[in-house]
Design a protein that fits this description.
Structural class: mainly alpha
Shape: globular
Order of helices and strands: HHHHEEHHEHEHHH
Strand content: 5-15%
Radius of gyration: 20 Å
Number of helices: 10
């Protein structure tokens, strides 16, 4: 970030204001306000309301998971969030419990580990609903880049690490633009586009577009 102490006269201010560094600093300042202010308040209100609204559905899903396959209904996994902070994400378990507890391979299309109930939960993204608790806790936001696992972050190129400049979200531009139909680099580019153009209105648009996309199952794995 630019060292403000180096701005000693009006000419220096004008030069700095015209630089890409200034624009980047302004974006970072805007993101800091967004993360700690209006965006956070909106997250708390909507996440709390959502948990109350979906409570009966959450209970039914938990019972259905445990009837079909032995093991916990909630799957916990370490993910990387805002500025590289690691947290535990919550999801409904959609796969059989692996004999090897360390088996955390990403599920693929037609993965035999995915249960019948799990396939439906994944298609409609119902498996993500427990993350409303992550939002309420402050680990995540309603809208933001999806949280990667630490092992994935370790392989990021420098430009890709900038997606950690905002709290991860339940939904994002990637979610409404094709999800798993997109390649990895396009996914990263969409996240950076979101960060660079964030506004409350953009968040609202993404949330509204998420509903029909999720119900259609487009791009789900």
């Amino acid at each position: 970030m630019f060292d403000a102490t180096s701005i000693r006269d009006e000419e220096s201010v004008e030069r700095y204001s015209a630089t890409a560094e200034f624009r980047r600093d302004m974006r970072e300042a805007k993101l800091a306000v967004a993360t700690s202010g209006l965006k956070r308040a909106f997250d708390i209100v909507v996440a709390a309301f959502g948990l109350l609204l979906f409570l009966p559905l959450l209970a039914v899903v938990m019972v259905a998971i445990q009837i079909e396959s032995p093991g916990p209904a909630i799957f916990r996994q370490r993910r990387t969030g805002y500025r590289g902070q690691v947290f535990t994400i919550l999801k409904f378990r959609t796969m059989t419990v692996a004999e090897d507890a360390g088996d955390v391979r990403q599920a693929t299309k037609n993965d035999t580990r995915v249960t019948a109930a799990g396939a439906l939960l994944r298609k409609l993204s119902i498996d993500e609903l427990p993350q409303l608790w992550n939002v309420l806790r402050g680990d995540m936001s309603l809208v933001g880049p999806r949280p990667p696992i630490p092992e994935e972050v370790a392989q990021y190129k420098r430009w890709q690490r900038r997606r950690l400049a905002m709290k991860p979200g339940l939904t994002c531009l990637w979610q409404i633009s094709g999800r798993n139909d997109l390649d990895f680099d396009r996914w990263m580019q969409l996240d950076l586009e979101y960060i660079d153009s964030w506004s409350p209105l953009l968040d609202l648009k993404i949330l509204l577009k998420t509903v029909p996309v999720v119900l259609s199952g487009r791009g789900a794995s």
